[in-house]
Every structure is written in structure tokens, then in C-alpha cells.
Write a structure and sequence with these properties.
mainly alpha, two-stranded antiparallel ribbon, 2 strands, hydrolase, hydrolase activity, Metal-dependent phosphohydrolase, putative
């Protein structure tokens, strides 16, 4: 969800209704295939989290 939030920031303000709905999703939780629940956005610095995600992807090449 961190990546999605970052992408959607570029479009914020175009459609207030969608902005509000997306904000509600980000306040919630997601559930993995094993039924474990996580906050939609992790606590802490989201830019650092996203950079770590990109590093993981890069390392898999």
C-alpha cells in the first residue's frame, strides 16, 4: 500500500470522492492469505519503507 499511496499522491485533488475513499482504505488493515492482519500503512518513515522495497526488488534481478 505504501507504493500505491506514493503513486496516487500525483493524482490527489483531481477527484475528491476518490481521495476520501482511498484515505479510508489507508486508515484500515489488510489481510494476507493466511488470515494475518496488518495496518494498510506501516508505522514509521514511509519513504524509507518504499526505498527498502525497491532495494528488495533490485536485489532479485
Amino acid at each position: 500500500m505504501v507504493w500505491g499511496k506514493k503513486v496516487c499522491e500525483a493524482f490527489r485533488g483531481i477527484n475528491g470522492i476518490l481521495d476520501s475513499q482511498f484515505d479510508e482504505i489507508l486508515k484500515g488493515h489488510i489481510t494476507d492469505n493466511n488470515g494475518k492482519t496488518y495496518p494498510a500503512l506501516p508505522e514509521g518513515n514511509l519513504d524509507e519503507f518504499l526505498n527498502h522495497y525497491y532495494d528488495l526488488i533490485h536485489d532479485q534481478k
